[in-house]
TrEMBL record:
Protein name: Magnesium transporter MgtE
GO cellular component, one term: plasma membrane
Subunit architecture: Homodimer.
Gene that produces this protein: mgtE
Regions that span the bilayer: 289-309, 363-386, 392-415, 427-450
Example GO molecular function: magnesium ion transmembrane transporter activity
């Protein structure tokens, strides 16, 4: 057993005993200080609320703030209820305005209002400005604390300004250049400031800024951020006035949250509101049950199709043997296409206007896959069950693969067009649709070939 694991076990033992007197709390505090921040974050996330609050309470302020900032906003909100008022006030005051706004979203209005009144005027104003934007907009994730430069300054003046105010903003590596009305004119990197002639004008060395509107969708802005390979991105209002800056850590957090949500919905569930080990059994069931009910109801289509073609199955019983193979092939083919197109949408490789091109491409891909599988199915089925059954299998596999690939590529684009989440339209619904449609294709081909 490693030293860290032994310390973790000791902390867990103390938490379960719920230490009350000063000596026990001091022992817990000493043990907790020995743990890396990553282990502390894990413990706070995965322990019951009372134990998490107790552990957090004994941490030194600097470590507590680092741990608190690493937690999701909804978990921060749960933790606050178990902390002392002064400790909460100290932590809230040290958060960045965008992190504070995310936390306030998760708190009851009365609690958020009380905490807001505890902030100084400047922090309250910055937090209010972030809260003024829609919840899924990039304005909610920007930092309003921005170190900006004026185009008429010399590089020497700009560097002096940076040295004076470097401790205030969240980042100084990318510096927006604004005019007297705060209109964004460009950006300049700190490295470039250090390398050019001190007498050069900032406006002459600045370059065009990759920026986003504060009301832009957060995922779209974050994807654009990484596509441009930025360290920071200015955020402007509708009049092109600088209102904040998006930093790489916030962009990463957005993408991680979106990917987690997409991954959960693609597999037919909702993302968990907190860490898996600290989510109640009821919470996990609730995240999955709705989708299972929806899919169960939609799967009735498959049963109805089988009932319609029941007489064909009675005439040629061997047809029933291939149903799992055909439905599985159709679902897998559709899921592959949907996953590929959903990812392409997320990284802006495909747009809604590309729908005809995507359909044409997936038609050819599906037909090629179907040809390969169809030939294989024809050979195997013909050898075992005869030429007629082999013909049915070959034609059906080719048709189902083509249909499933088109549907799989089409649905994420349709979802994007109507403003829905492409992941929601992905694997579960495609599987169900392809099952029912594939069976109709199968029995239609069997009827024609076998003369049923």
């Amino acid at each position: 057993m490693t030293r860290t694991q032994a310390t973790v076990d000791s902390v867990l033992t103390l938490l379960r005993e719920e230490p009350q007197h000063e000596g026990q709390l001091e022992h817990l505090a000493r043990e907790a200080r020995e743990l890396p921040v990553g282990e502390l974050v894990y413990l706070v996330e995965t322990r019951p609320a009372t134990e998490a609050a107790l552990l957090f309470r004994v941490l030194p302020k600097s470590i507590a703030l680092t741990v608190f900032e690493a937690l999701p906003a909804h978990h921060q909100a749960e933790l606050i209820s178990g902390l002392r008022t002064q400790q909460v006030a100290d932590i809230i005051g040290d958060l960045d305005p965008d992190d504070r706004a995310s936390l306030f979203d998760e708190l009851p209005a009365s609690v958020a209002e009380r905490l807001m009144h505890g902030l100084d005027a400047d922090e309250r104003a910055m937090t209010t400005s972030v809260l003024g934007y829609p919840r899924d907009s990039i304005g909610r994730y920007m930092s309003p604390e921005v170190l900006s430069l004026r185009p008429e300054w010399t590089v020497a003046e700009a560097l002096a300004h940076v040295r004076t105010h470097a401790a205030e903003p969240e980042t100084i590596y990318l510096l927006p250049v604004i005019d007297a009305t705060r209109s964004l004119e460009g950006v300049v990197g700190l490295r470039r400031l250090l390398l050019v002639d001190p007498e050069a004008r900032v406006g002459d060395i600045a370059h065009e800024a990759v920026h986003a509107l504060a009301t832009d969708d957060r995922e779209d802005a974050a994807r654009r951020f990484f596509s441009a390979k930025l360290l920071a991105m200015p955020i402007v209002d509708a009049e092109n006035r600088l209102v904040g800056i998006l930093t790489v850590d916030d962009a990463v957090a957005i993408i991680e949250e979106e990917n987690t949500e997409d991954s959960a919905r693609t597999s037919g569930s909702e993302p968990l509101p907190r860490a898996y080990l600290s989510t109640s059994i009821f919470g996990i069931v609730r995240s999955r049950i709705v989708w299972l009910l929806v899919l169960a109801i939609s799967a009735i289509l498959t049963v109805q199709v089988l009932e319609i073609f029941e007489d064909r199955l009675d005439q040629v019983v061997v047809l029933a043997l291939f149903i799992p193979l055909l439905t599985g092939t159709g679902g897998n083919t559709g899921n592959q296409a949907a996953t590929t197109v959903t990812r392409a949408l997320a990284v802006d490789e495909v747009r809604v206007r590309d729908l005809p091109r995507v359909v044409w491409r997936e038609l050819r891909v599906g037909a090629t896959l179907g040809l390969v599988l169809g030939v294989l199915g024809f050979v195997v089925a013909s050898l075992v069950y005869g030429l007629s059954i082999g013909t049915v299998m070959g034609l059906t596999l080719m048709s189902i693969c083509t249909m499933a690939a088109i549907v799989g590529g089409l649905m994420p684009l349709v979802a994007k067009r109507i403003g829905a989440d492409p992941a929601v339209f992905s694997n579960p619904f495609i599987s169900t649709f392809c099952d029912a449609t594939g069976l109709i294709i199968y029995f239609s081909i069997a009827t024609a070939v076998l003369g049923l």
